[in-house]
Amino acid sequence: MPAPTFLVADDHPLFRTALIQVLRERFAQMRTVEAASAATLGTALQEHPELELVLLDLAMPGARGFSSLLHVRGEYPEIPVVVVSSNEHPRVIRRAQQFGAAGFIPKSAPAEDMALAIETVLDGGSWFPPMAAERSEADAALAAKLAQLTPQQFRVLLCIADGLLNKQIAHELGLAENTVKVHVTAILKKLECYSRTQAAVLVKSLEPESTA
């Protein structure tokens, strides 16, 4: 059996090192790929089709709340994603599950629990801490709407949320301005939004609750 390859996406080098150490103790032959931002996460996914699991921190540069999770699930649905986060708010855990994560590991979890969670997901299961938050129909509806977007449309949506104009989005993504215009029209229709501002507010709702 070939050695599994894991993608560890976190902007803190020390935590990436610690998590890789946990993996190495349980999966001696495994290989790891690292990412420290939403952009390097996307590059790593493109360059490593052999990936079997993504371990994802939600709070990375370039990410908007759950946007990286939604991006990976939309573009690479065959690769399971385990969220590894310091934000243990019950609704954050529940939303991660509703937005397609196969597991959620609090950063405060013991190494043994981390290893068990990863093994469970690799075996086709799921692993989440006990959750007090109820399933949200609004989140389910939002996830269903966002799932209709193509990966490129999702990138355009994040640019809209950052307040960029079509011309700026075209420059940012290397697209023709007319192509961006077509994407924006399709995005607003799929999300049932009447304006760019309404779409931006929808993206804002992807931000996780504060742990405070």
UniProtKB/TrEMBL annotation:
Pfam families: GerE, Response_reg. Residues 5-122 form the Response regulatory domain. The keyword Phosphoprotein applies. It comes from the Bacteria. Keywords: DNA-binding, Phosphoprotein. SUPFAM superfamilies: C-terminal effector domain of the bipartite response regulators, CheY-like. The modification 4-aspartylphosphate is found at residue 57. This is LuxR C-terminal-related transcriptional regulator. It comes from Comamonas terrae.
